[in-house]
Amino acid sequence: MLKGIINVLISIALLAYPVLVYVGLSHGYEQQVAWVLVALLATRLLLSFKNRAIGNWILPISAFGLLVVLSAALADEPKWLQLYPVMVNIIMALTFFASLFQKQSMVERFARLQEPNLSEQGVRYTRKVTQIWCVFFVINMLVATYTVYLNDVQLWTLYNGFIAYVLMGSLAGGEFVYRYWLKRQGRLV
Prior knowledge:
The chain is mainly α. Helices cover about 80% and strands about 0% of the residues. The protein has one domain (about 1-185). The relative contact order is 0.10.
């Protein structure tokens, strides 16, 4: 129970990562923010060894995130803090892409949590949705990278701390509505 609460709190704090970095970069607290992020990512990394997520992406995101943030703290290079969203998108794109070569695609794994006896039609549909998510993560990674090199921490924070989340939510919500419509039309069983 306590481990679950800690995981939720860390996840919420890491969702606020861009805002934390913005505060650090714009108010001269880069080192303090970097070390707080190191502590959060190290804790999540340790917890992720015991709690394997469906796609096992929490472990590599935590490990590489810890490496990036620790490098930023040790090298006193605050710009590296802005690379975390880029790295997250790379790992997500690779994880979803790799699942296309496995028995079950990433979205199929999620779908089977609610519908264990997924039809063949459903399997094909989830494979296509996994491909769409791959494209999304690549585009999001490219835009996140671009915002780093613009040297505008406000724009970087706006995109990585708000717009990217809205886009992700819109894609997930749009897919949910589309899937519901397909089921109502009898085109997805």
